[in-house]
Amino acid sequence: MAPFPASGHPAAEAYLADGYERVVGMSSRFAAAICARLLRLQTEEGVSGPIAEIGAFEGRFFIALAHALEPGEIALGIDIFEWPNPEVRERFEANCLKYGIAPEQRVTIKGDAGAMAPAELLAHARGERLRFIHVDGEHSRAALSKDLALATACLSEGGLIVLDDMLHPGYPTLMVAVQDYLEANPGVVPLCIIDRETIVGATKFVLCQRDWFERYQAALLEIFKEQIWPLGADFEPHWCLVLSLDTRLAEIT
Ligand SMILES: C[S@@+](CC[C@H](N)C(=O)[O-])C[C@H]1O[C@@H](n2cnc3c(N)ncnc32)[C@H](O)[C@@H]1O
Question: Which domain of life is it from (predicted)?
Answer without folding.
Answer: Bacteria
